Amino acid sequence: MNTTKTVKFDQICKSMLNIDRNVRSVAIMDRNGRLIHSETHRGFTQPSFDKWNNVHYMECTFDISLGAKFDDLYGPIRYHHSGHDDFMMFSFPYHKNIIIVTSTKKVSPIAFATKISKFINGVTV
């Protein structure tokens, strides 16, 4: 990967951490589930992207990737959301990659996903 893209991914992750006070972590992965870049707020340890393995990343990207096969029929997937005991996780397609954002449970899923999607749609590769 070239330095320009690495810097861009770094900037995207850092900017997304500041979109909403409830954002806890951001990770950019390729379609194979390999971590490209991640940022986490200090003091936030769950989930720690550093400790997740490639199998878990694959799991997070599965719905987005599988859904792409039905884009012609239903339209493209804008995001996938899942709630966990103490956090929420959102997956967004981003060109040939996937962005995973975790947040506190204090967010409204649709409003939060819309806010993140608007940011992602404004970012160019």
UniProtKB/TrEMBL annotation:
Annotated protein name in UniProt: Roadblock/LAMTOR2 domain-containing protein
Species of provenance: Candidatus Nitrosotalea okcheonensis
